[in-house]
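Is this the right way to post structure tokens for a design question? Let me know if I should format differently. Anyway, here goes:
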């Protein structure tokens, strides 16, 4: 179950420059999340480039998922688990989209809670790469942002 975004930003500060894009990249990521929620593999495939690279947290051990075949394998693993994802923020940062929130899963009886911190790279209206990060800070850094001491976003 995915809970709708609480914050939507159509701009991203990078190196003192506000990068503003259309909603198209964010809409691609929203459709990806809707397809995951519906467990709709065909809709997922339609939103991803045929040569997509997907880097999830366990990719450190198993390597990234590549192409539509990799996407199918990754989706099958996710669909098998009991996942609940809350998206707190989606931010368009040029050709990249930052997604922040929280995820909870029950995998083979074990409970798993983690921050949701992902960066999607969009090319020609398709996801070309998705990378999950262990922390919000790592994901923010990947798009050229940082959090200030109060937890707010700074450039």
């Amino acid at each position: 179950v995915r809970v709708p975004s609480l914050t939507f930003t159509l701009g991203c500060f990078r190196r003192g420059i506000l990068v503003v894009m259309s909603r198209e990249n964010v809409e691609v990521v929203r459709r990806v999340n809707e397809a995951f929620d519906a467990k709709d593999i065909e809709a997922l495939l339609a939103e991803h480039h045929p040569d997509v690279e997907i880097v999830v947290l366990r990719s450190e051990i198993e390597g990234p998922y590549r192409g539509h075949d990799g996407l199918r394998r990754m989706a099958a693993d996710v669909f098998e688990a009991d996942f609940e994802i809350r998206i707190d923020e989606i931010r368009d940062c040029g050709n990249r989209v930052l997604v922040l929130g929280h995820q909870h899963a029950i995998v083979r009886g074990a409970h798993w809670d983690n921050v949701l911190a992902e960066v999607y790279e969009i090319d020609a209206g398709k996801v070309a790469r998705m990378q999950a990060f262990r922390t919000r800070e790592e994901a923010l850094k990947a798009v050229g942002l940082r959090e200030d001491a109060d937890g707010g976003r700074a450039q």
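Format looks fine. Someone answered above. Worth noting: Confidence is low (pLDDT under 50) at residues 1-21. DSSP finds five helices and twelve strands in the chain.
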